[in-house]
Amino acid sequence: MYRTSAVPSSRHRPAVSRNWRSFGRRSVMSVALVATAVVLPACARNPVTGHRELALISEAQEIQMGREAAQQAAQSLGLVQDDALQQYVQRIGAKLASNSERPGLPWTFRVVDDASPNAFALPGGFIFVTRGMMNLMTNEAELASVLGHEIGHVTARHSVQQMSRGQLAQLGLGIGSILAPEAAQQFGQLASTGLQLLFLKYGRDDERQADELGFKYALEANYDVRYMADVFAALDRLGDASGQSPVPPWLSTHPDPGDRVETARARVAQLTRPLTNTIVDRGPYLAHIDGLVYGENPRNGFFEDGSFIHPDLRFRLQMPTGWKAQNLPQAVVAMSPQQDAILQLTLVPGTSATAAAQQFVRQEGVQAGQAFQQSINGIPAAGSYFQAQTEQGPVQGLAAFFSFDGNTYQLLSYAVDNRFSAYEPAVRSTVGSFRALTDRKLLDIQPRRMHIVTLDRTQTLAELASSQHSPLSPAELAILNGVPSADTPLERGMAVKIVR
Q: For strand 119-122 and strand 307-310, is the pairing parallel, antiparallel, or unpaired?
């Protein structure tokens, strides 16, 4: 696993509101139990090592589980809507996998619409790379090393080994790495929006083996494997630039990117074959990411001055003051400073706020309190106070529903241990803030996009950033372009990345 505004191009235009259109679908978590059918202990030979090991699920089960998880990942996370890019990544990945130890798997490679630099593998050969990682890389050789690494996790059956050891809770399926894990850790115990996903934590040995396998697969496909170190170096530089550790706490079991740089370079030094005439393909790669959204896409919703704003769905909501809020693929969630109360906004089926409110209080274990039905800022609304019993104990809260623009929204807030009364004024204020978005500037906001420009003279990235009015710092542009610094002279005719 890897981690760390010009006129929009129709090639890279993301699906409308992918963060929200997926509401009401099954959580990705639901597929985590596909493989829990009763099986008898058995041994199988690891395709990579040749060693016999405990295997409690068959390859058919592995593929079935991975396929269903991949469908849910595509629905919940959203795919980049660019057929040419998707076909390009599929072609590169399939070429690598065809010479692996498991060529017969239904290998599938997709680019998901997420800003973080990341890639993950699902059991059975279903692999995803984020657009954030695509934006970070600079050539096809780097892409091959990333896809090769993820192929290695599948061929070595790392997730199958975890499940066979009885660690079903750590199945993870890689999804957690993309769903803002720090938020899921904070909100997962209270929110029922799929944030309970437990994260795949391959051990250091698994990660090192996947690195080694990725190196081998890329080399066998005639890629210049010297660029594998550049991927780790870019991740390391991103961590330094952000002032954070390049290895997040939730990835503490993973090797440090800096160590992986040195290991990758050591592998190259040990090669007995020359790397002349190997594939780099910088130009074709850059052509495929030209116009790709860079960073968070505001069309999927964003925060401004304490409000959550969704341009595509045309609404805004004021969050409680001091609460930590985050826009996640299946919900907007906020938690109180004391972490004893939560608020979450989701889409629910139907078009009637009243019907949705009635259905909510009819749930088993929910005890309804005072109900309301009224118009809030011209929007039909209904809801009820409630009490319920959860795994964390009894909770009290307020569930409000809004019918707006053909959708029904659920704003659910609750607290534990009879603490809701302390938060009720803030919650009521948030409920009363749901309104239509009318500010044309916010309605028309567009994402930043990657653009590839050819230098018409020798210059530095610092000079280019100034002339192009780039919203990114020269240092960040240097990382994106894989050059030592923003003051490094770049030759005339070179294709470079710029963000507008």
A: unpaired
Rg of the chain over all Cα atoms, to the nearest angstrom:
24
Q: What is the DSSP letter of 207?
A: H
> What does the block give as tokens for 361?
């209080």
- Tell me if 402 sits within 8 A of 434, measured CB to CB: yes
pLDDT < 70 stretches in the chain:
1-43, 53-56, 161-202, 241-258
The Cα 279–Cα 301 span in angstroms is 39
Taking Cα atoms as reference points, which of 417, 348, 340, 415 lies closest to residue 383? 348
- Res 163: pLDDT: 61
Looking at residue 328, its pLDDT comes to 82
Neighbouring residues of 427: CB distance < 8 A, sequence distance ≥ 6: 320, 343, 397, 398, 413, 420
Structure confidence at residue 246 (pLDDT): 38
3-state DSSP helix/strand/coil % of the chain, to nearest 5: 40, 25, 40
Residue 205 CB: number of other CB atoms within 10 A?
11
pLDDT digits (tens, 9 = 90+) for 8-45: 344 564 444 445 544 333 333 333 333 333 344 456 77
pTM (predicted TM-score): 0.81
- Under DSSP, the state recorded for 200 is P
What secondary structure does DSSP assign to 338-382, as a single string? TSSEEEEEEEESSS-HHHHHHHHHTSTTEEEEEEEEEEETTEEEE
Q: How many residues does the chain have?
A: 500
From the centroid of its chain, how far is CA 353?
Answer: 31
Q: Are strands 126-130 and 108-112 parallel, antiparallel or unpaired?
A: parallel
Closest by CA position to 322, among listed 332, 307, 337: 337
- DSSP H helices, 248-341, are 257-269, 282-289
Decide if 402 contacts 416 (C-beta within 8 A). no
Q: What is the dihedral of CA 471, 474, 476, 479, to 10 degrees?
A: 140
